[in-house]
Amino acid sequence: MEQNKAAATKPRLSNAQIFNLSAGFFGIQFGFALQNGNASRILQTFGADVEHLSLFWLAAPLTGMIVQPIIGYYSDKTWNRFGRRRPYFLVGAILTAIALILMPNSGAMASFLPPIIIGAGMLMIMDASINVAMEPFRALVADKLPESQRSFGFSMQTFLIGAGAISGSWLPYIFSEYLGVSKVAAAGQVPHNVIYSFYAGAAILLLTILWTVLTTKEYPPEEMALYHAAEPETEESKGLISILSDFSKMPLTMKQLGLVQFFSWFALFSMWVFTTPAIAQHIYKVLPGDTSSVKFADAGNWVGILFGVYNGVSAIYALILPSIARMTSRKIAHAFSLLAGGAGLLSIYFISNPDYLIYSMIGIGLAWGSILSMPYAILSSAIPARKMGVYMGIFNFFITMPQIVNGVFGGMIVKKFYHGEAIYAIVLAGVFMILGAISVLYIQGSKEK
To answer: First and final CA of the chain: distance in angstroms?
Structure first.
């Protein structure tokens, strides 16, 4: 039987169709933003010390390292009446919504275990579930879009990520400042404005995932085969052995992107973990151990606003990033963006007025917008279509490893070398972001200049 016919070109999708296939990312990032902006605050409320926060946050990269390659592998192999990728992100959304509801209420379950243990457990469940939902969305873009639309497809995801993150990051502030919901609570209790925000996040996550499930049709195996040139038949192992084999055979471009990802995600992890205590101590002059004062609440709410700002910048930037990449190259566009992010992080140290932190977030937003799209656009052209899911999952190793390294040593560094002053963790993050920008320029093996 003849197998070497030229592959057909996938039909171009309309902007509305590209929006629909990524709409669930709005809800995923809504929940992720609530976690990023409030998890440290919640864990501190339940008794976590600043230097231990990074250890609790290890739940995210550890679960991602385990879950994403497995989900990627099995989503490549899954074909049923619900689709190829859709069953996975639907299940992930349901589990994430449950964790969003339970995490801020960990104190209510104190009769079973200490709240800090329950809170950390909910953080781990939330991270695992988000990873189940997130990885198939990356592969879905590559499955559905022709090469000419992939940069725009990943940028649309980044736009929706930014829009969801703005909403999730700002919601606690909106509840307290505009709807009159209390922003403070008794020691050991999570304020109601945070609790209600997590409830809203659970509902929005489910609704947007259902939107994608109901509006997007996946190509069945026989149609997908038409869009890809026949690949040599090889005898493959199953399950974990296959994943390990694919890891050892990863493309050159993927290996070279690994260093860039290490620097970028080390910096991001520091920012997410330590921004709230850094700004509370360095700018609001909150004393160590104070988690129930109005000043601490104000700092936490303002961090939510700031995180919304950088995500808003990333959403807008994502729409123009493909044009910048076409005029220069994907490498140049990504390097410029990471350099802007490094400058934004370093500037936080020199700011005393919290209002001026908005300017720092602009640079961080440029970096975040590029981190969420450019590496995937570069990578998607370098990996075989039949292994798109597993390689997108394996690529997550280069995201999780720097976070694990940071999680193990970050808190120790803050305690031993920075004497509990979290602002210096933010400075180190800025340095690493700049190193990421430099390392982008040394990538070889991609299909562009």
So the answer is: 39
Tokens of 109: 């379950």
Contacts of 136 (CB under 8 A, 6+ apart): 71, 72, 75, 85, 86, 88, 89, 389
Q: What is the pLDDT of residues 293-347, one digit of tens each?
A: 889 888 988 998 898 899 889 888 988 888 898 898 888 999 999 999 999 999 9
Measured from the Cβ of residue 16, the count of other Cβ atoms closer than 10 Å reads 8
Residues 401, 286, single domain; the answer is yes
The answer to whether residues 210 and 266 belong to one domain is no
Please state the pTM of the whole predicted model.
0.70
Tell me: do 437 and 370 sit in the same domain: yes
Give a yes or no: residue 89 inside a domain. Answer: yes
- Could you give the CA distance from residue 108 to residue 195 in angstroms, rounded to a whole number? 12
CA distances (Å), 364 to each of 39, 90, 321, 349, in order? 20, 31, 15, 14
Does residue 2 lie within any of the structural domains? no
Is 232 a domain residue?
no
**Over the range 186-214, which residues count as b (16 or more CB within 10 Å of their CB) and which as e?**
eeebbbbbbbbbbebbbebbbebbebbbe
**How high is the pLDDT of residue 2?**
43
Cβ atoms of 180 and 53 within 8 Å: the answer is no
Q: For the segment 17-35, what is each residue's pLDDT rounded down to a tens digit?
A: 989 988 988 998 899 888 8
Residues 416 and 270 in one domain: yes
Please write the tens of the pLDDT for every residue from 221-270.
Answer: 777 777 765 555 554 555 556 666 666 677 777 888 889 999 999 999 99
Q: How far apart are CA 218 and CA 82, in angstroms?
A: 9
Domain-embedded: residue 196? yes
| Rounded average pLDDT over 1-10 | 57
Burial of 60 (0-12, 13-18, 19+ CB in 10 A): buried
Residue 185: C-alpha distances to residues 44, 102, 177, 250 (Å): 13, 18, 15, 50
Are 445 and 96 in contact by the 8 Å Cβ rule? The answer is: no
If we measure between CA atoms, which residue out of 170, 380, 158 comes closest to residue 254?
Answer: 380
338: phi then psi, degrees, rounded to nearest 5: -65, -35
Tell which residue, 143, 137, 135, 157, has the closest CA to residue 322: 157
